Amino acid sequence: MSSYTLWLLSPNRRARVRQLAAATGASVVAAWIVDAAVDAGFLGGVFVQELFHPSAPELWMRAVVATLLVLLFVRTQDRARLQLLTAALAEAPDGVQVVDVQGRVCYSNAAVQALYGYGPEELRGRHVDLMNADPHFAERIILPALQRAGRWAGELDVRHKDGHVFPVWLATALVPGGLGRPPAAIGIIRDISERKRTEEELRGYAHRLEDANQLKELFADILRHDLLGPVSTVRLALDLLDKEEHAPRSQQLVARARRGCAQLTEMIDSAALYAKVSAAREIALEQLDLGAVLAEVVAQSEPFAEARRGRIAYQGRGAGYLTRAHPLIADVFANLISNAVKYGPDQGTVAVGVEDAGDRWHVSVADRGEGVPDADKPRLFNRFERLGKAGVKGTGLGLAIAKRIVEMHGGGIAVEDNPGGGAVFRVSLPKG
């Protein structure tokens, strides 16, 4: 050790090494090796005391022995760590495999052996191309990725010893070489046969569900057509009877029959519409102005309100509320306004408003009726649920249809108590 190198040591260590060298007549290098071994804790007890004894002979030889002991200790520790790592890999639930640069297997744990059906020594030296269903997969896909990014992960099909092919998930990374060792690739392998079977079953279920939904929609159209045919015949007959003179009692019966036809038509249309919207996964949206839609719905609903000597107060602009929606959204507002008129008092006012809520529009329809009890609110939007005012006719599908249409727009619908009495229905729609 040169004087320059000696000065790289701390002052205390420099003094200790010089003292040891002077006391034993050994070289500074020998003294430094022994001192380093003692400082690292690799030498101790009587042997250390003898090394530092002023009369210790052959300090250089003892320094060499100390160095060998240090190397042996480090190697023993490395071997223990290696044994621990090997045991952990051997018992790992996923397959672990090491492949050299030629693509030949260097190591496979028990999980890999069970995966492919080979014995412990049958895989060693075997080329991975012989185990892949596509013998060129590694060359085309994996190797370029390892050269480019040092890692690759994905699905591939492999071949079992008995010949059957099955899918696995492989995550592999390049391990650089060093100290004369060539680089290698280590891979984690997992059998995904069960997952692929589950995915295929889910796809089958989805296809069957889609077919069932299309059949349901077709059936709804056919049912609507077939049911409305006889209703139209009855309505036509009633129109002919209206043109003739009848006793007051007969006129009452004709009027009652006409109301029944109208109610039956509404039920058929509602059932057909509910079947369609409940079967649909999504709907085509277009740019609409909620202001224009609401103004049109209010105008169409006003005669109904006027028949009960009421009115509809639209508290919003006629334009300027742009959103992406389907024309069916008008049916939602028409249903809410119709319900507000029906369930509200005679000569009542239905308030319709629009509020800007950041990335959404909030449309409200408020009445002054009896309101909705808290216990009934959770099931109000279920189909065939009709709550509240006696004598009000309806199908029990209107709010269920409204909820489905709003949800298909990515929105929400809810009912709250109106502070002044009655109920407030709120529809939230994305601005799009």
Describe this structure in words.
By secondary structure, the chain is of the alpha+beta class. The chain has 4 domains: 3-88, no CATH class; 93-196, 2-Layer Sandwich (Beta-Lactamase); 200-279, Helix Hairpins (Orthogonal Bundle), CATH 1.10.287; 286-430, Histidine kinase-like ATPase, C-terminal domain (Heat Shock Protein 90). Helices cover 50% and strands 19% of the residues. The protein has 12 helices and 12 strands. It has a 5-stranded antiparallel β-sheet, sandwiched between helices. The protein is elongated and about 140 Å long. The two termini are 77 Å apart.
The residue fraction in helices comes out at 40-55%
Main sheet: strands, sense, barrel: 5 strands, antiparallel
The CATH topology assignment of the largest domain is Heat Shock Protein 90
What is the correct CATH architecture of the largest domain? 2-Layer Sandwich
Q: How many domains, as an integer? A: 4
Quick one: how many beta strands? Answer: 12
Give the name of the CATH superfamily of the largest domain: Histidine kinase-like ATPase, C-terminal domain
Strand content: 15-25%
Read across the widest sheet, the strand sequence of neighbours is: 2-1-5-4-3
Q: Count every helix, treating DSSP H or I runs of 4 or more residues as helices.
A: 12
Protein topology:
Layout: H1 3-6, H2 11-24, H3 28-39, H4 45-51, H5 59-90, E1 95-100, E2 105-108, H6 110-116, H7 137-149, E3 151-159, E4 165-175, E5 184-191, H8 193-242, H9 248-279, E6 286-289, H10 290-307, E7 311-315, E8 322-325, H11 329-343, E9 349-356, E10 360-366, H12 398-408, E11 412-417, E12 423-430
Parallel strand pairs: 7-9
Antiparallel strand pairs: 1-2, 1-5, 3-4, 4-5, 6-8, 9-10, 10-12, 11-12
